[in-house]
Structure formats: C-alpha cells, structure tokens
Design goal:
Elements: H1 2-18, E1 32-43, E2 54-64, E3 69-79, E4 100-112, H2 113-118, E5 127-140, E6 148-163, E7 169-180, E8 185-193, E9 199-206, E10 216-227, H3 246-289, E11 303-309, H4 322-334, E12 338-346, H5 352-372, E13 381-388, E14 400-407
Parallel strand pairs: 12-13
Antiparallel strand pairs: 1-2, 1-10, 2-3, 3-4, 4-5, 5-6, 6-7, 7-10, 8-9, 11-14, 12-14
C-alpha cells in the first residue's frame, strides 16, 4: 500500500510540473466530463472468462485537473446473467437470485500517459492512452441472507478516441482489474488449545487485506464521454499564446517605470502651466481693474505723410497708386483748414536734367489729380520738384512724390 501511495505522489508531482505555466487559467467549473459505460465482468481465476462473464454498467463524473491528471467518482453495477457457484472469493463469489448482484462506488485518478510523456500540444490527440487507479465500496447482494460489504481497489487503462473538431466527445475502451480487499476465511481450520494442550475448538484462519488473484475480477467496458464546455470557449485546456520569461517581466517593469516617470514629469509641467495661468489671470484682473488713461491730442499739430511711387521714367500716377492720392483728397475734404505740400523726386539714375524734369512733373501730377479729379482748391496745394533723391537705399524707392498734409495752426 505504501508503494501505491508513493507512486501516486510521484505521478502527481510530475503532472503538476508538466502543466505549471503552459495553460490559460480556468475556473472550477471548467474541464468536467460525464461518461456512460457498459461491458462485462468475470472472476480473474477459476472460471472460464467468456462463459462466466456477467454484464456490468455504470457512470463516471470527472474533473480534469491538468492535461495529465484527472480525478473522478464512479458507480458500477453487475447484472446476474450467469452463476458463479464456486466461492473463490469473499464477495465476488456471493451468489444472488437478484438481477443486480454487485455494486461498486468509489473514486479514481486517471493519468494521461500520452500527454505525460509526449507533451500537451494545446488540444487532445485523436487517440490517447490513460492509466487508471481507484478504490471504493464493494457491496454484494444476497437473496434471503445478509449482504456482503467490502472495499475494492482498481487498476486499468483507457484507450480514448477523441472525436470531432471540438473534441467534445470521446469513445473509450476500458479494460481493468478489481480486487476485493477484505480478508477471506481460509478453508483450513485453526485449532485452539489451552495450556495443558487440550483442544478447545477449531476456528477459521482469517487473512488480512491483500491483492490476491483469487479475490479479483477482470472487467472490459466501452464508454461514451461528453466534455462540457469551458469558459475559454473550448472543451479542453488551451495553452497561453505567449510564455513570459523573467527577462520579459523585467522589460515590462522597466516600461512601467518609464511611463510612471513620464506621468510624474507631465504632472510637474501641468502644475507649472496651471501656476502660469493663475499668474496671467491675476495680471489680467489687475489690468481690468485699472481705469483707462485718457490721452489728449492737440489736433492743431496733427500731420500725415503719404507716398506716391512711380515707374522708371514715368510721371503719371498709376492705377495702383491712385488710392494713396485719394486718401490725401479725403483728408483735405474732411479738414477744410488743412493744406498739403507735394514734393517730387527722381532716382539718381540717368541724366540730371531729365531727373529734374521728372521730379517737377511728378509733383504736378499729384496736384493735378487732386484739383481735377477730387475738386481740391489749387491754393491749398504747394507742389514742386526737389530733383534727385537719395533718401532710400533701394534706388527705385526714390522715384516718388511725398505728400505732407499739415493742419493749419490757425484752425
């Protein structure tokens, strides 16, 4: 028995290590299955197997803990279809006139050898092999006598065929051996004597629990299993798409720390911006609270200068320059006491006498437009040419008439 316990502990350790980090997390309600099964059972020894086989049927409810190890409960019942007259074992030999003559209810552990030694690829294989070990209550029914009770152990194999794309159904061939573990009464009697050697009586020799072929039965069943749907959308375990190493975790932690630092810096910038905004609001409130200053302008000193430019060797006012002359005329109309001084200039290029002519005619062209087009009195206009100009570094700017409008001091 100790060897069995140690073997179970070793296998459980292997299965736990095999599936430690490869699977997606699952709920307690995941990876359950239900099995209906039936077949034949016969004593292990002293009987012809097929001639003395009896029918057996049962059911299983299993929770798959890992792809390697599953734990379940089962119930099985034998059908009295043949006579086991030879009492080769304590319970298996119990002869009954009832239809159901034996009952086994217990727990079992199933070990998927295909996944244990071949690894789990993320979905069940079409064909897999499992080893099975279990124990439970064994009951033999008798007609007109006391029923027999014992406990049994079980060892067997499951040859599984997983069907369909979703692997929701499994058909299994399930051979196994069951042992009646209760001690039997030996056929030899044990004499009991007193101190003087007198025989007090004959008593049967009772043997303890043990694995004994005379107390065993062989079983062959076929099973149909349905695997209930899981929270991950499948009927089986799924593997995590990414296996993270410690280096991966360290890299993620570094990124988290970097983002945390960025967040802290962004918060500092936000605080500074809020402080600046508060100061600007304070300054704005201070400005709004001040009364506007009234500036008094002496309109008798008001003046305006407007320039009218000319093309090379031209004296007429071009269309693009007429708005400037119109501004002079508009001001003179709105201010009857104002006068304007128009001075004509020429750039330094070309002969001097021609430049003097250009300067005079440019001044006169502005005066003529003010008088003829806008109706300004000639007496309010002082126009003359000032000759060559070097007022501007850009030579073309010197081809100009400058109109200085001055408000009369005697206004």
């Amino acid at each position: 028995m100790k060897k069995i316990i140690l073997t179970l502990a070793l296998i459980l350790g292997i299965t736990a290590a095999q599936a430690q980090v490869t699977l997606e997390g699952s709920k307690f309600t995941d990876n359950w299955s239900f099995t209906l099964k039936g077949g034949a059972i016969s004593p292990f020894q002293h009987y012809a197997v097929f001639k003395n086989a009896r029918g057996v049927f049962g059911a299983e409810l299993r929770k798959q803990i890992t792809p390697v190890f599953g734990l379940g409960v089962e119930g099985e019942w034998t059908i009295n279809t043949s006579s086991w007259n030879k009492p080769v074992s304590y319970v298996w030999g119990a002869h009954s006139n009832t239809i159901i003559d034996h009952q086994m209810v217990g727990m079992f552990g199933a070990f998927n050898l295909s996944n244990l030694f071949g690894g789990y690829a993320g979905a069940p294989r079409f064909f897999e092999v499992e080893a099975l070990m279990g124990a439970g209550w064994l009951h033999g029914y008798k007609a007109g006598d006391n029923d027999d009770n014992s406990w049994y152990t079980k060892a067997g194999m499951n040859f599984n065929f997983n069907l369909g794309e979703s692997k929701a159904w499994t058909i299994s061939i399930k051979p196994s051996v069951l042992w009646d573990m209760n001690g039997d009464f030996d056929k030899y009697n044990r004499k009991v004597t007193d101190a003087a050697g007198n025989v007090l009586g004959n008593y049967p020799n009772k043997q303890g629990s043990r694995f004994n072929a005379n107390h065993a039965a062989i079983e062959l069943e076929a099973g149909l299993t349905y695997h209930f749907g899981n929270s991950n959308g499948t009927h089986y375990f799924t593997i995590c798409p990414k296996q993270y190493t410690q280096a991966d975790l360290d890299a993620v932690n570094s990124q988290v720390n970097a983002l945390r630092n960025q967040l802290n810096n962004a918060q500092a910038d936000l605080d500074a911006a809020n402080a600046r905004n508060a100061q600007l609001q304070k300054d704005l409130d201070a400005c709004n609270s001040k009364k506007p200053e009234v500036v008094t302008v002496d309109k008798s000193k008001e003046s305006m200068r407007i320039l009218v430019h000319y093309k090379v060797n031209k004296t007429n006012v071009s269309a693009d320059q007429q708005p400037n002359v119109e501004r002079v005329a508009s001001y003179l109309k709105n201010h009857p006491d104002a006068t304007v001084t128009v001075r004509g200039y020429a750039s330094p290029e070309g002969p001097a006498d021609n430049n003097i002519r250009l300067a005079n005619e440019r001044a006169e062209s502005v005066k003529n437009m003010l008088v003829k087009k806008y109706g300004i009195k000639a007496s309010r206009i002082d126009a003359k040419g000032n000759g060559i100009s070097d007022m501007f570094e850009e030579l073309s700017w010197n081809r100009v008439s400058i109109c200085d409008i001055v408000v009369n001091d005697n206004k």
